């Protein structure tokens, strides 16, 4: 099993926020001016880009990304991407991995907010000005706009290939008018839940815990390395909205010889401070779910075991001593902010 490769040079927004252009959230490539060498859909693949020596197709060298033909006229190529969730974008990664003599020299990004598919009447706003690109490189670029967007237009100048586009941001959830007697999964990515800190993610990223559906395989979950010292592993998650938790699901789907022996959950209602300060605070949060025995490849449901703590904003999932969890669901009622 391959370890998760976190780029040590990546800025904080890569770890803090989810990829709004993830296909599991519903993101899709809607249009490209050209897809001669490689289709737009490959650019949104959540897996790292690959290079396969000697692999060719009818159009030439097979490349893992979106690649246009060499432009022999004025203008530039561009593509429209629908985000999986409307959201506030904090940064992007324009990844040209494995594109060396065929990457675009520059790129820019425009954004819009619309209900349907963008058309000729759509008003676009530039959120990333033209920026020089390098071959076979990640380009981590901060976005200053704090508006919520639904679609992006990636412009490449004048042509070439982009391996991956990652769009890191916060889903824009409109909680106004929601039924306060209903239960919502308050840590679901689509409801604005997000991991804010964790002690280890060697084999699987914590963001997977909050994604829609059940895990596709063992790599589609949060998994830590084998612990060789006392203690346990943990992950702190911010709820999308303060709420009172009434039902909990811990799913170890696909984790068989490496599921945690037990788990527990602590919770707190936090105002002020920083995400770094949460790590110390979380050790002293009251227990929401006492230690529970887990089993392999199974959905575990808890309700009567949940302590009545009232509204909470953050939880700390403790896995004892280590291992992998595919999904965490915290169903609760909305609390007044």
What keywords describe this structure?
337 residues; Jelly Rolls; 2 domains; 22 strands; globular; EC 3.5.3.4; Allantoicase_dom; Galactose-bd-like_sf
How is this structure best described in words?
Pathway: Nitrogen metabolism; (S)-allantoin degradation; (S)-ureidoglycolate from allantoate (aminidohydrolase route): step 1/1. Residues 26-171, 192-334 form the Allantoicase domain. It comes from Leeia aquatica. Belongs to the allantoicase family. It is an enzyme of class 3 (hydrolase). The protein is built from two helices and 22 strands. The chain is globular, with a radius of gyration of 21 Å. The strands form five sheets. Strands 1, 2, 6, 7, 8, 9, 10 and 12 form an eight-stranded antiparallel beta sheet that branches. It has two domains: 12-171, Sandwich (Jelly Rolls); 184-334, Jelly Rolls. It is mainly β. The protein has helices at 12-16, 275-282, and strands at 18-19, 28-32, 56-57, 60-61, 66-67, 77-95, 106-112, 125-132, 138-142, 148-157, 161-162, 164-171, 184-185, 194-198, 222-223, 233-251, 262-268, 287-293, 299-302, 312-320, 324-325, 327-334.
Quickly describe the structure.
The protein has about 325 residues and is mainly beta. Helix content is about 5%, strand content about 40%. It folds into two domains: about 10-170, Jelly Rolls (Sandwich); about 185-335, Jelly Rolls, CATH 2.60.120.
- In the predicted model, the low-confidence regions spanning at least 5 consecutive residues are none
Distance between the termini: 43 Å
CATH class of the largest domain: Mainly Beta
CATH fold topology of the largest domain: Jelly Rolls
């Amino acid at each position: 099993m391959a370890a998760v490769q976190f780029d040590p040079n990546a800025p904080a927004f890569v770890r803090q926020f989810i990829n709004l252009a993830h296909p599991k959230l519903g993101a899709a490539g809607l249009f490209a001016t050209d897809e001669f060498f490689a289709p737009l859909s490959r650019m949104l693949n959540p897996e790292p880009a690959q290079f396969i020596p000697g692999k060719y197709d009818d159009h030439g060298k097979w490349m893992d990304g979106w690649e246009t033909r060499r432009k022999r006229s004025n203008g530039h190529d561009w593509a429209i991407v629908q985000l999986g969730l409307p959201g506030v974008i904090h940064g992007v990664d324009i990844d040209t991995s494995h594109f060396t003599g065929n990457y675009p020299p520059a790129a820019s990004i425009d954004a819009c907010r619309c209900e349907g598919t963008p058309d000729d009447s759509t008003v676009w706003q530039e959120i990333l000005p033209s920026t020089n690109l390098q071959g076979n490189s990640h380009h981590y670029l901060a976005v200053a706009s704090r508006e919520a967007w639904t679609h992006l237009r990636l412009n490449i100048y004048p042509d070439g290939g982009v391996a991956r586009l990652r769009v890191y941001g916060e889903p824009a959830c409109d909680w106004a008018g929601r039924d306060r007697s209903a239960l919502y999964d308050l840590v679901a990515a689509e409801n604005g839940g997000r991991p804010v800190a964790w002690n280890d993610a060697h084999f699987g990223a914590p963001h997977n815990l909050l994604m829609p559906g059940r895990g596709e395989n063992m790599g589609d979950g949060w998994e830590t390395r084998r612990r060789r010292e006392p203690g346990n592993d943990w992950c702190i998650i911010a709820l999308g909205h303060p709420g009172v938790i009434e039902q909990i699901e811990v799913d170890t789907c696909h984790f068989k010889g490496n599921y945690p022996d037990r788990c527990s959950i602590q919770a707190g209602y936090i105002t002020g401070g920083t995400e770094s300060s949460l790590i110390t605070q979380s050790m002293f949060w009251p227990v929401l779910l006492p230690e529970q025995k887990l089993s392999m490849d199974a959905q575990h449901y808890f309700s009567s075991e949940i302590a009545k703590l009232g509204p909470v904003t953050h939880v700390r999932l403790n896995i004892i001593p280590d291992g992998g969890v595919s999904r965490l669901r915290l169903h609760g009622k909305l609390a007044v902010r």
